[in-house]
């Protein structure tokens, strides 16, 4: 197996060559040396922290502590009457703004080597492709008195229910919107026959981590995600 691969979508989207070193490949330094002059950006997901000397040599930075939460799908719970399936396509701007808001802790936002507009465009595409059901099976929203306050996108990964985007409007935080969306996501997963529900977030995203733990999720795995700018 090749120790690294070119990421076509990322390369086309960002306008420069992006590669990924395969998980578990031992000689990361050799891979980075090989890719110098070929790649502009290299992703590395590692089980542990990478040596500072390697980061210094190859202009690397810790971009994210990728944290996966899981929960066994449980029995029926009371659902909020303000939750509904989102069927408007293309998405309204209020929904796109929520999607962009969900990415404020994203590695594409916190790594200042990326242009701000590219991060926004990435999340705009994520919302639009979710609403069109290209990359999501369901999109649920929390809407009260015509006010769009929350968003959650749902799909499948590894035979389990999978949460993509979760966002709550800043003005509606602390009012139970996030918990209502998570309960609806679990109910959807149960109807689909999934036995587990999972969601990935950034370790630095304390509000999201707290929400998931409050909803009964536990940390299943952690990965250290690095960007090397060559």
Automatic annotation (TrEMBL):
Transmembrane segments: none annotated. Residues 94-230 form the N-acetyltransferase domain. Keywords: Acyltransferase, Transferase. This is GNAT family N-acetyltransferase. One of its GO terms (molecular function) is acyltransferase activity, transferring groups other than amino-acyl groups.
